[in-house]
Amino acid sequence: MRKSDIIIKVLKNIALKQKLVFQAKCPDKSVIDAKERKKIMPLKSRYNANFTGDVTYGNKVVEGIIELAAKEINGVASLSGKGVKCEVVGETVNVEVFVNVYHTVSCPDMAFRVQENVKKTLESMTNYKAGNIDVNVLELTIEGAEN
Predict the structure, then answer these.
(1) Other CB atoms closer than 10 Å to residue 1's CB: what's the count?
(2) Which CATH architecture has domain 59-141?
(3) One-character DSSP codes across 46-64
(4) Where are the domains of the chain?
(5) Sheet strands side by side (includes 129-141)
(6) Tens-place pLDDT, residues 85-108
(7) Which of 14, 36, 90, 96 could be 32's S-S partner, Cβ–Cβ 3.0 to 4.6 Å?
């Protein structure tokens, strides 16, 4: 099982538990006072909660998801320099990934696999759609070679 699949399951379980707790306490989805909200929601999620059901993601979270997706691909030695840059425009995320690759892989094939995996992982773990996914190959790495 891939790391991204495990993360998806954990996020779904958390969302499901919070939704069930909220629905059990407030089935008509009416506005509740501050004392009731403290009883229902844990301290950390109370300040970031939006009772309309919207979920927001920090840039670091989105970048982390993209980074994990890129590193899963065979042939990617590491992320280079900036690693990942992303720009959120409405519901769309434009991505730039900077990678170091092993000298034995085909760069176009590896770049295509990175694009596909980033798109699939981003869209399955968030409510965003993937826009442009640019893969920048910055360095070739020889396996077993020391600097």
Answers:
(1) 6
(2) 2-Layer Sandwich (3.30)
(3) HTT--TT------HHHHHH
(4) 3-46, 59-141
(5) 76-89, 92-102, 129-141
(6) 999 998 999 999 999 999 999 999
(7) 36
